[in-house]
Amino acid sequence: MARKRRDSNRQRPNILVTGTPGTGKTTMCTALAEATQLRHVNIGDLVREKNLHDGWDDELECHVINEDLVCDELEDLMDEGGNIVDYHGCDFFPERWFDRVLVLQTDNSILYDRLSKRGYTGLKLSNNIECEIFQVLLEEAKESYREDIVFALKSDSIEDVDCNVTQLTEWVRQWHPLA
């Protein structure tokens, strides 16, 4: 028997795409948004544009996001549905927001090369590689959301991205809110 959705007002699904930096989240979200006409919400961009942070972390070379401000900013948008949220963390988003949680995973040697090309070095590089090795984000997703909506997807190549987008586009086409 199908589970009743908690928020039956949405006519389009919300999808969370998470994973270690460099796993292809933004690439896949952009392609998926184009294929499905869902709205791509890149949390990193949103944080920068709307100053939803508590300053800069010099050691990790990134903003320290204010999770409460981010959730407040997204609340109405998520209630509407039709969103693909793109972020490397997931445990602070309300469970009720998402119909599918995707954790992109990349082979460590490929990920190392991608992050190095981005200029990641030292602690920032090693932390992200360790995060992928120990599947930290997959475990975080499984602990934060119903296990039946959490999926790990291979993201080593553009062919993987294309395959994932094709499968997800079909899922979006078939998605219907339950009464």
From TrEMBL:
SUPFAM superfamilies: P-loop containing nucleoside triphosphate hydrolases. Residues 1-20 are annotated as: Disordered. Belongs to the adenylate kinase family. AK6 subfamily. It is an enzyme of class 2 (transferase). Broad-specificity nucleoside monophosphate (NMP) kinase that catalyzes the reversible transfer of the terminal phosphate group between nucleoside triphosphates and monophosphates. Has also ATPase activity. Involved in the late cytoplasmic maturation steps of the 40S ribosomal particles, specifically 18S rRNA maturation. While NMP activity is not required for ribosome maturation, ATPase activity is. Associates transiently with small ribosomal subunit protein uS11. ATP hydrolysis breaks the interaction with uS11. Its EC number is 2.7.4.3. Interacts with small ribosomal subunit protein uS11. Not a structural component of 43S pre-ribosomes, but transiently interacts with them by binding to uS11. Residues 117-127 are annotated as: LID. It catalyses: AMP + ATP = 2 ADP; ATP + H2O = ADP + phosphate + H(+). Residues 42-65 are annotated as: NMPbind. GO terms for molecular function: AMP kinase activity; ATP binding; ATP hydrolysis activity. ATP binds at residues 22, 24-27, 118. This is Adenylate kinase isoenzyme 6 homolog. It comes from the Eukaryota. It is found in: Cytoplasm; Nucleus. InterPro entries: Adenyl_kinase_AK6 (IPR020618), P-loop_NTPase (IPR027417). GO terms for biological process: ribosomal small subunit biogenesis; rRNA processing. It comes from Trapa natans. Keywords: ATP-binding, Cytoplasm, Kinase, Nucleotide-binding, Nucleus, Ribosome biogenesis, rRNA processing, Transferase. GO terms for cellular component: cytoplasm; nucleus.
